[in-house]
Design a protein that fits this description.
Elements lengths: L11 H10 L5 H12 L7 H14 L3 E5 L5 H7 L7 E5 L3 H13 L6 E4 L3 H4 L7 E6 L6 H11 E10 L18 H16 L3 E6 L5 E6 L1
Parallel strand pairs: 1-2, 1-4, 2-3, 4-5
Antiparallel strand pairs: 5-7, 6-7
Helix pairs in contact: 7-8
Bound molecules: S-adenosylmethionine.
Length: 219
């Protein structure tokens, strides 16, 4: 039996089916999943990890930008699909967490590939100038809306903007599910989703996968 998040956004039997069908990781990624579980580190859910792998495998990115590194799990996952010479820049504001990520990246032999910048993404994003094939937003949910312009600016044409947790345990979709202290995050996530859908530079789909994911392509 799959252990369910009680706040899963689809019926538990659907999640169970998806998880049973999705190939499991082994080796270092599995170790990181176990570490995350044991230490309550929020990493991407298995279905979302699989979506990231598929999108990266299609795109074969040269440059990925990630907002929200945590212990480096999703960066290490995505690195498998980089083009030759490809790199990942990942942002993490918590110094201890960034240090753990760097150690994990070193253990994975990826120190030359994945660069962890330890700073507030809100400050770093406006300073970046490179163009990215994929931007993965998995940091401060309440600030996605304020990061959208920079994300679009930093994406190559044809590049993908992927944002996790946008349905936020279902709260984004329905007022009745909103916990009072989360109302600001929820309102901003709704604005973020609407803004992506309405931006002429983007073609966006909202997927009820994991905790809700938007995938947008810059056109
Ligand atoms: C959901 S976790 C990222 C998980 C990671 N992407 C994975 O799947 O392996 C979100 C991370 O974003 C970091 N974070 C939150 N706000 C941030 C900010 N303003 N700037 C940079 N990092 C931030 C948190 O410290 C946390 O480690």
């Amino acid at each position: 039996m799959v252990e369910y998040d009680k706040d899963a956004i689809v019926y538990p039997y659907i999640t169970e089916y998806l998880r049973n069908e999705t190939p499991k990781h082994d080796g270092f990624l599995k170790d990181l999943e176990e570490y995350a579980e044991k230490n309550s580190v929020p990493i991407v859910q298995p279905e979302t990890a699989q979506l990231l792998s598929v999108l990266c495998a299609i795109k074969r990115p040269l440059r990925i930008l990630e907002v929200g590194c945590a212990i480096g799990y999703s960066s290490i996952l995505m690195s498998e699909f980089l083009s030759d010479g490809g790199t990942i820049t990942t942002l993490e504001w918590d110094a201890d967490t960034a240090q753990i990520a760097r150690e994990n990246i070193k253990k994975a032999g990826l120190s030359d590939v994945i660069n962890v910048i330890c700073n507030d993404a809100k400050e770093v994003l406006p300073t970046l100038t490179a163009e990215y094939d994929i931007v993965f937003l998995d940091g401060p949910k309440a600030h996605y809306i304020y990061m959208l312009n920079d994300c679009i600016r930093l994406l190559k044409k044809g590049g993908l903007l992927i944002a996790d947790n946008v349905l936020y345990k279902g709260m984004t979709a329905d007022d009745e599910h909103v916990i009072r202290r989360k109302i600001t995050i929820v309102k901003r996530l709704r604005r973020f989703i609407s803004a992506q859908m309405q931006r002429k530079e983007l073609k966006t789909v909202l997927l009820p996968l994991g905790d809700g994911v938007t995938v947008a392509v810059k056109i």
